[in-house]
Structures are given as structure tokens and as C-alpha cells.
Design a protein that fits this description.
Length: 286
């Protein structure tokens, strides 16, 4: 082996890490070394900075538990989660695009009837979300599963509330004509967790740590590409600065504010409420 120099070290490391039988792992590792070395060379990292980075990564790892994933948050705020999502869900024009899953999805939400309230007893402005699930050919999709989760009107998810039962989450199914109806409360914009190592880093920037108001959806039906996405409230003050880069144009939706009176459920509301119309378009596929 030639003696190591600053100039030849990257080539030597790539050459050694080519010695991996699995071609995909070989490709990933050699590319990682190339870009990691490129980064270290470009910024000429100091020993003190590298020690700080290792310490930060160590503390980030120590923060991760069953309930909290600080590394995913790092991936989110650096735009990597959305890049992975975009590469893995290159859908046809017209199909509802995907966006980040986020850490707050809970499996096995209760199944509710069309129009049933998934926000019973929760703070917030009443909000009806309805529309159709269709294929790219415009045909209605019957029995599509819509797994829905969001914050309450205080900006808190179930995991952030001291609650026994399900909170602001439910599963709905589209009817024979592809229609779905959800009753909830309007979500509000919220901050990502700032009490960990990501927060520590963000505090040293001028970057907003807020997400615009949104409702999460996982929509699936046999024979169609499953999507995980959000709808975002048009006009939200954080819509252009989402800290996790999740906002895509087709996902921005008008939350129409209606005056007090008869709601789509037939009940009378003494306060104004939101009426939101949104159609999901699924691409055929696995
Ligand atoms: C969310 O939308 O729930 C979320 C996504 C990424 C980071 C934090 C929260
Ligand atoms: Fe969210």
C-alpha cells in the first residue's frame, strides 16, 4: 500500500471499501466516503470542530428512545427526509404527492364512520374535511383507507397530551362513490421539539422552527401506490418556511371559514367553523 498522504487518503479509503460483496452496500459506502471526505476537505474541519460534531452526534443518539427519535428530526430539518421521500415516491403528474411522515403517527387508530368526530372533546375550531378518493383515470376508489392524525387546536399531538384514549386520530373509509367525510378541529402550526440537540443547533441559526398547520393522511387502496401526505392550510404564516420542507403546492388547501349556523353534520354551531374540500388522486401500482 502506498504511504498515506493528504492527497491520496480519499482514494485509499474508497479502494479499501470497495471490498464489499454486496454491490448496493459497496455503492453506498464508497459514495459516503467520497462525499464525507469531500465535506471535510472543503471546510477544512478543525480537530476541535470534529470533536464537537462527535459529541453532538453522541448526545443525539442518547436522546433517542421508543418515543423520541432525534436523528429523524435531524434528517427532517436538513431536508434529507423530504429528499428520500421524493426519490422513493416519484408519482405521475396529477397524483396527490407525498410528504414527510413525521414522528406522531400511531398505528391501529379507531375506525370511524363517515362524518364521525375524531376530535370529540378536543380544543379547537370545528372543521369538516371532505372530498373524493379517485384513481388517475378519475374513477372513484371505493373502500380506500384514510388514516388521519393531527394536532388539536392547542398544537399538541396525542404523544404530547396526557390522555388514555386516542386523541385526534382515526381511520375512515371512502364510500362506493369514493367520497369521504371527516369531522375534526382545525390544526394549528406548531414548533418541532426544541429541547434536544436539534433545538440546540437551531438556536444558533435564524431558521424558523415552526411547521405550518396541517393534517396528516395515509391513504391506501388495493392496486394503488400508498401515499403518506398532509394537507396544509392556505395562508398559514409558516407555509413558506416549513422547518422540515414538507410543503408541496398541490397540498395547500383553502380552509373555508363559515359563519355560525348549520354545519355539514346537520348540527348548528354557535361559532364559526371550517369547511375543507380535498380530493385525493392515487396512482395505480403496488
Ligand atoms: C409532523 O408533522 O408531525 C412532524 C414532522 C417532522 C418533524 C416533526 C414533526
Ligand atoms: Fe405534523
Amino acid at each position: 500500500m502506498p504511504h498515506v498522504t493528504e492527497a491520496n487518503l480519499t482514494d485509499l479509503a474508497i479502494e479499501r471499501w470497495k471490498n464489499i460483496p454486496d454491490p448496493r452496500l459497496r455503492r453506498i459506502m464508497t459514495s459516503l466516503i467520497k462525499h464525507l471526505h469531500g465535506f471535510v476537505r472543503e471546510v477544512e474541519i478543525t480537530e476541535a470542530e470534529w470533536a464537537t460534531a462527535i459529541d453532538w452526534l453522541t448526545r443525539t443518539g442518547k436522546m433517542c428512545t421508543e418515543k423520541r427519535q432525534e436523528f429523524i428530526l435531524a434528517s427532517d430539518v436538513l431536508g434529507v427526509s423530504m429528499l428520500v421521500d421524493s426519490i422513493n415516491h416519484r408519482l405521475a403528474t396529477g397524483a396527490t404527492p407525498t410528504t414527510v411522515t413525521g414522528p406522531f403517527h400511531v398505528h391501529d387508530s379507531p375506525e370511524l364512520e363517515q362524518g364521525a368526530n375524531m376530535a370529540d372533546g378536543a380544543p379547537g375550531i370545528p372543521c369538516f374535511v371532505s372530498g373524493f378518493v379517485r384513481g388517475l383515470d378519475g374513477k372513484p376508489i371505493k373502500g380506500a383507507v384514510l388514516d388521519v392524525w393531527q394536532t388539536d387546536g392547542d398544537g399538541l399531538y396525542e404523544a404530547q397530551r396526557d390522555t388514555d384514549g386516542p386523541w385526534l386520530r382515526a381511520i375512515y373509509r371512502s364510500g362506493a362513490d369514493g367520497a369521504y367525510v371527516i369531522r375534526t378541529v382545525a390544526p394549528v402550526g406548531y414548533t418541532i421539539p426544541m429541547d434536544g440537540t436539534i433545538g440546540e443547533l437551531m438556536q444558533r441559526t435564524k431558521i424558523s422552527h415552526m411547521r405550518p398547520a396541517h393534517i396528516h393522511f395515509l391513504v391506501e387502496a388495493p392496486g394503488y401506490h400508498r401515499i403518506i401526505t398532509h394537507i396544509f392550510q392556505a395562508g398559514d404564516q409558516y407555509i413558506d418556511t416549513d422547518v422540515v420542507f414538507g410543503v408541496k403546492e398541490p397540498l395547500i388547501v383553502n380552509f373555508e371559514k363559515k359563519p355560525s349556523g348549520r354545519m355539514p353534520s346537520g348540527e348548528t354551531s354557535k361559532a364559526p367553523f371550517y369547511d375543507v374540500k380535498y380530493d385525493f388522486t392515487l396512482q395505480p401500482g403496488a
